[in-house]
Amino acid sequence: MTQTYNFSAGPAMLPPQVLEQAQSELLNWQGLGSSVMEVSHRGKPFVELAAQADRNFRSLYQIPDNYKILFLQGGARGQFAAIPMNLIGKKGRALYLTSGHWSATAAKEARNFCTIDEVNLLTQGAEQGIVNLDFSDIAENYDYVHYCPNETISGIELFDVPNVGNAVLVADMSSNILSREIDISQFGLIYAGAQKNIGPSGITIVIVREDLIGNARQDTPSIWNYAVQAQSDSMINTPPTFAWYLCSLVFKYWLAEGGIKTIEQRNQQKAKLLYDYLDQSHFYHNRVTRQNRSLMNVTFSTGNDELDAKFVAEATACGLQALKGHKVLGGMRASIYNAMPIEGVQALIAFMDKFAQNQ
């Protein structure tokens, strides 16, 4: 195999065209004779870049005008703490809907800052999936309701939005942001580490409704205070300028490719191809119910740890990288984010078939 395909769950692959443009501009950005990494974030060229990135992201994701976009640091883990510090109000409580490792980790962090109730969404049994997403009867007892629509480790995705009535809905979309169309107005806040579908690690995007800004608890550090960050255009300190620049290139690239509709169609096609192969296979197994199979992270195994390890080693030697499953779950995991071409999925299936026949 001459072509290498990177199935990493994150940091994940970026569109090659974006990397090529960044490479061509690395030493001379906008004719300045300097890299974008070497210019002031407060200078006119970078301020214009940031403003254009905001406009392009809004256009790409259809973000309403009454939402602020913040480009922050600290990853999604930082937001696990920032969210309760900014959103907990008079009710003093939050509801966390857990469906896997990351939503449970978010709930654990939030307990350091407020009282939370936790509801496990997962069904019991051989196959894992989600049963109920209607919390309209209890949601308004809380300052916000938090969930993670895509769990990267287990490959579980929630395609329906939880019904929380008039309560504030918060979503950790680190691993499925920009992967399919959503109605932003259903959410009070969306946050995502960039390193899967948006850009490199080191930058985190927060989309927050304006009426939720300005209510942070008094002891909230300024770096986590949404009001401070919004008033400073996400630049109260030196931001990760190169990561921001790469995100801006990704937004332009996907707008030119046809936007979210095109992205979603490609993602559905890739996922269907791989899941159809798994469903007809007697050698590999996926344990997620069909209605909750992730478009982004496809988990599978042979049922034998030694055979799984052999699979990963031989796949890597063939140019199919980062297929080892997370240590929490084991097995294999193919992360097929936006930048993964369908040819990568086809190459993976061809290898899987050959490997199975040789055992």
From TrEMBL:
Reaction equation(s) it catalyzes: O-phospho-L-serine + 2-oxoglutarate = 3-phosphooxypyruvate + L-glutamate; 4-(phosphooxy)-L-threonine + 2-oxoglutarate = (R)-3-hydroxy-2-oxo-4-phosphooxybutanoate + L-glutamate
UniProt xrefs under Gene3D superfamilies: Aspartate Aminotransferase, domain 1 (3.90.1150.10), Type I PLP-dependent aspartate aminotransferase-like (Major domain) (3.40.640.10)
Cofactor: pyridoxal 5'-phosphate
BP-aspect Gene Ontology terms: L-serine biosynthetic process; pyridoxine biosynthetic process
Known role: Catalyzes the reversible conversion of 3-phosphohydroxypyruvate to phosphoserine and of 3-hydroxy-2-oxo-4-phosphonooxybutanoate to phosphohydroxythreonine.
Cross-referenced InterPro entries: Aminotrans_V_dom (IPR000192), Aminotrans_V_PyrdxlP_BS (IPR020578), Pser_aminoTfrase (IPR022278), PyrdxlP-dep_Trfase (IPR015424), PyrdxlP-dep_Trfase_major (IPR015421), PyrdxlP-dep_Trfase_small (IPR015422)
Species per Swiss-Prot/TrEMBL record: Nicoletella semolina
Pathway: Cofactor biosynthesis; pyridoxine 5'-phosphate biosynthesis; pyridoxine 5'-phosphate from D-erythrose 4-phosphate: step 3/5; Amino-acid biosynthesis; L-serine biosynthesis; L-serine from 3-phospho-D-glycerate: step 2/3
Name this polypeptide is given: Phosphoserine aminotransferase
EC numbers: 2.6.1.52
